[in-house]
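During the reporting period the student researcher (J.K.) took over the structure-prediction task from the postdoctoral fellow and processed the backlog of single-chain submissions. One of the processed entries is reproduced below for the supervisory committee.
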Amino acid sequence: MTDANLILGRLSEDGLLAGTMNLDKAAAAAVFDSLAQSLDVSPLRAAQGVIDIVVANMVRAIRTISVERGHDPRGYCLMPFGGAGPLHARDVARNLGIEEILVPPAPGIICAHGLVVSDLLEDFVNSGRIEVKAENITQIEQILDSLSAQARKWFEQESILDHTRAIRIRLDMRYVGQNFELAVPLETPGNQIPALMVGDLQQKFFSTHEDNYGYFNPDDPIEIINIRLTASGRLAPLADYRKLDTSDSAPVTTDQREIVFRSDEPVTCPVFSRNDLRAGHTLIGPAVIDQLDATTLLYPGDIGTVDETATLLITLSEDLN
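J.K. obtained the following C-alpha cells:
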C-alpha cells in the first residue's frame, strides 16, 4: 500500500515521519513494473488497483458497523485516523456517499491519545445459559451481586474516587436456538443493581431485537448467555486545546509534486505543511497536506477548511468520481 501511494505521488519521496523513514521510489517502481506486465496494465493502473482493494476493505468494515446495523452512513461525517487514514478517506467517503471528512489535528497518534485520556475500564463477565423465566431471576441477581462485589474491589485497587465511579450492565441475550446474541443494556440508577422482572427483561430484548433485525417474536423462549458488568473510573478532564491563531492571508505552499488521482495523467499539486495552517485557512484541491504523523489528500474541487482547534473539515466536490 505504501509503495502504491508512493508510485502515485501521494506520498513524498522524502519519506515518512518528516523524512526520518526513507522510502525508495525506484524499488517500488520496479515491483509495480513487474506486476503491471503480468496484469497487462500500466504501472500506475496497477498501483491504483492496490489502492482500490485497500479502500474496498475499509468500506466493507464501515458498512459492517453502519449499514448492517441499520445506520445510513450518508448522514454522517467521516473521521479518518491512523497515518494512512486521511490519505484514503476521500475514496472511502465517495464509496459510502459521505459528503464531509473531518481530519483531527494528529490522526496518526489519535489511538495513543485516546489511551491517555480515556476513562479506566474493567469488564467482569459470567458465562452460562440461563433461560429468562421467573424461577431463574434469583440466580441472575446473585450473579450480578457477585460481579458488583468484584467491581468494588477493583475500584479500591485502582484508587478510583467514589464520585468518579460508574457501572454498566449488559446481558448477552438471544432466542433459544439462535447462533448470535444481542447485548441488552440494563439501567443502573445510582450505580446500583436494578431489581429484575421477567417482563422487563423480555421487553428490553424484544426492543433490541427489533432494532437490529426489524422484528421480534413474543412467544419464543429467551436465554441469557453472558452477564456483563463494566466498571469505569472517570479521569479528570484535560485542559482545553490551545486555539489556533487566525489568519487572513493565504496558506503558504512548501513544495509541489505530481499526483495521480483517478486517471493515468498526473496532476501538479501544491503541498502544504499542517503545522503552517491557521484557523480560517481554506484549501481547494488538488492539494496535499503533509505532517509528521499523516498525509491528507485533497481531490480536485474538494475544499478543506481549518478551524480554531486545528481540525481540518473537508467538503467533497459535487463530482464524487
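The committee noted the following: The longest helix spans residues 43-65.
J.K. will present the remaining backlog at the next meeting.
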